[in-house]
Amino acid sequence: MLITTDEIPHTKSPEQKTSWRCAVCGFLFEGEKPPKGCPVCHSPSSEFIPNGAREPLRYDGEKFDVLVINGSTHRAGNSGYMADLAEAVLRERGVSYRRYNVSEYAIDYCWCCYAVRAESCSYPCRNKNDDMPAFHAMLAASKAVIVVSPINWNGMSARLKAFLDRTTCMENLFHLNKPGLTEGKVAGILICGHEDGAIKTAMDIWLNFQQLGYVLAPFGIAFRTHGSQFNSSTDREFFRNDELIVRHTRGVVNNVIEMMQLGIEENVKGKLVPVTE
Ligand SMILES: Cc1cc2nc3c(=O)[nH]c(=O)nc-3n(C[C@H](O)[C@H](O)[C@H](O)COP(=O)(O)O)c2cc1C
């Protein structure tokens, strides 16, 4: 699991400065603690992560049940809040999980090898230069995903789009008549926005997982928008005080767990006929 900046132990002496990076715009800051806010993109302090040479993300192979993906540009924004709510339910239910905020990772755009030659797009992905191979491995290893996205122009965030485009190498296994890695797994989708477009965004995300052979949990989509009559500066406060977002998010996570615990994946393995576009 990832630690938040609040949890990072400050064991250095005051003279030893840490370098902090805004995960949204890349602004760098030196200091014992991250700045109160980013002077460039105006993100709050919670968007800062320690800067420095980072090893590419690796999956250690340890089994876990649910992969939680916060697809927002903001690791600790409104989508991050929904991901926090999801984590709370998973903890309460004793379900093993890992949560990742995509803004903290290097996820390159899809090279679209498939568009050149079908056989060129296969698993593992040809692009091994970023963090996506570890996410591929975790998608294959986990039993369920919970994906969170803000609405950006009636669709998912660009960062999540890049992530989902990169799952084409797993989907294309079915076209190439190779054994699949993802069929029968369970998906839940959480969406937040300012005014509208939540259903379309959820359906766009769902289409991707459907083509990977996932099963959408019953009542597996929760969405909440604040309202165009309000200033977006008030969105964060609204989401954190809204009772419905808590109830619906917790419901989706509950329903994902219930479906996952039915063991559909083991039961349908090898029995499904892949029908993909
Ligand atoms: C580029 C951009 C496009 C957006 N488009 C929409 C939209 O089409 N519909 C909507 O309801 N909200 C839209 N929003 C508002 C965000 O969905 C909303 O602020 C969301 O809660 C932000 O989540 P975050 O804190 O995880 O980034 C847009 C925001 C941005 C920056």
Main beta sheet strand tally, sense and closure: 5 strands, parallel
Low-confidence runs: 1-12
Taking all residues together, what is the mean pLDDT? 94
Number of domains: 2
In DSSP terms (H or I, runs of 4 or more residues), the helix count works out at 8
| CATH first level of the largest domain | Alpha Beta
Distance between the termini: 35 Å
Total DSSP E strands: 8
Strand order of the largest sheet: 5-4-6-7-8
> Can you identify the CATH superfamily of the largest domain?
Flavodoxin domain
Residues in β-strands, percent:
15-25%
- What is the CATH topology classification name of the largest domain? Rossmann fold
Q: How big is the Rg?
A: 19 Å
Molecules bound to protein: flavin mononucleotide
Helical coverage, percent range: 25-40%
Describe the model.
With 277 residues, this protein is an alpha/beta fold. The protein folds into 2 domains: 14-50, Rubrerythrin, domain 2 (Single Sheet); 66-268, Rossmann fold (3-Layer(aba) Sandwich). Helices cover 30% and strands 17% of the residues. It is built from 8 helices and 8 strands. The chain has helices spanning 78-92, 132-141, 158-165, 168-175, 198-211, 235-240, 243-260, 264-268, and strands spanning 18-22, 28-31, 48-50, 66-70, 97-101, 144-150, 186-193, 215-225. A 5-stranded parallel beta sheet has the order 5-4-6-7-8, with helices on both faces. β4 (66-70), α1 (78-92) and β5 (97-101) form a beta-alpha-beta unit. α1 (78-92) packs across α7 (243-260). The radius of gyration is 19 Å and the shape is globular. The two termini are 35 Å apart. Mean pLDDT is 94; it is low at 1-12. Flavin mononucleotide binds next to α1 and β7.
